[in-house]
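Journal club prep — side note

Before the paper discussion, L.F. wants everyone to see what a predicted structure for a comparable chain looks like in token form. Sequence:
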Amino acid sequence: MYVDNWNYYYSIGIGDLKSLFYDGPYSQLSTLKLKGSMNEPKGSTFTRCEVTLSAKRGLLDERRNPPISIGSLDSYGSLLKAYI
């Protein structure tokens, strides 16, 4: 992937104590979105791609059963989008 555009987002807010996703009084989220053109694999029908990396404090320490989804992969024509 050749990156030709990127965006960083950070938010902090009041957490929802009834939610499974927030374990304290505050919620913090940060994301990094990379956009660019695909260079591998050669001959792929996907020529553009977007990868969003999302982070939440303490995520690696969480133990849930069943486990929470860690991302998604979608395609729209020649665009391949990943959320991790």
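L.F.'s comment for the group: The chain is about 0% helix and 50% strand. Keep this in mind when we get to the figures.
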